[in-house]
Amino acid sequence: VTEGAGTTLPVEIRPGLAVGAGRPVVIAGPCSVESPEQIQEAAEVVRRAGASLLRGGAFKPRTSPYSFQGLGEAGLRMLAEAGERTGLPVVTEVMDPSEIEVVARYADVLQVGARNMQNFRLLTALGRIDKPVLLKRGPGATLEEWLYAAEYVAKGGNGRIILCERGIRTFETHTRYTLDLASAVAAKQLTHLPVIADPSHGCGRRELVAPMARAALAAGLDGVMLEVHPDPTQALSDAAQALTPADFQRLMVELGLAPARA
Ligand code: PEP
Ligand code: MN
Questions:
Q1: Which one, of 41, 94, 45, 48, lies nearest residue 72 by Cα?
Q2: Which SUPFAM superfamilies match (predicted)?
Q3: Is the CB of 194 inside a 6 Å radius of any atom of ligand 1?
């Protein structure tokens, strides 16, 4: 992935939509798919505001085994349906090699979560599929370890990899993690892969998400992933970091990515 370093090779999601092609890509949606109504409403909200892809977790890597674990395949179906209805490709996490087949049936982009960044069997198996992989950085991983993780996917023949900086563990406790934008920019300089940032997980606080999203794009990253919930007070996961529809709309205007009004 370090070949041709510094010149980003775009990763095509579908004809007319690529990450790393110049125009920043916004991936938005709830942390988790919770119901058909919730994901459909989220999809409409983010599409109207100008997002290019819809996100939503169905297989959730939760810190506590007693927390909501996601809806599994039923959630994938709801996500794919909301994506189809709004015309948005969908991104969702795959946690285990045994679930790649089912996730790939519904998803346009398969996400490797931060906790699985060094799940080498998962990475190796994703190297054999022909869909893009969004590879999140582990909270305890160095830049070099992150790039080697990408190398595991690429080695199998799948070069369609998008790197995602989502915050690392530091001594700071005010924020959930520390969004390491400098390493994200370094990843762009050291590889040919597109790199995006996820300030939602990086900060864990909705009031910091918009400023850090602006910072990420100002630094030249290829996009952002943002958690948006129709009603964050009702969110089953990551409620504190979810943007409201109004927050998201405002941010998209600030970023100059909101569609022109008809
Ligand atoms: C997510 O994007 O839903 C997620 C769980 O993020 P991370 O793996 O970065 O914690
Ligand atoms: Mn989340």
A1: 94
A2: Aldolase
A3: no
Which atom of ligand 1 is nearest to 225's Cα?
A: 2
Q: Is the CB of 201 under 6 A from ligand 1?
A: yes
| Of 133, 98, 101, nearest in space to 117 by CA | 133
Is 137 near ligand 1, meaning CB less than 6 Å away? no
Q: Which of 141, 156, 155, 146 is nearest to 188 (CA)?
A: 146
Whose CA is closest to 45, among 207, 197, 227, 185? Answer: 227
pLDDT, one tens digit per residue, over 87-101 is 999 999 999 999 999
Overall pTM > 0.80: yes
Give the residue whose CA is nearest to atom 3 of ligand 1: 31
Question: Ligand 1 within 6 A of 20 CB?
Answer: no
State what percent of residues in the chain have pLDDT above 90: 99
Q: Are 23 and 29 in contact, with CB atoms under 8 Å apart?
A: no
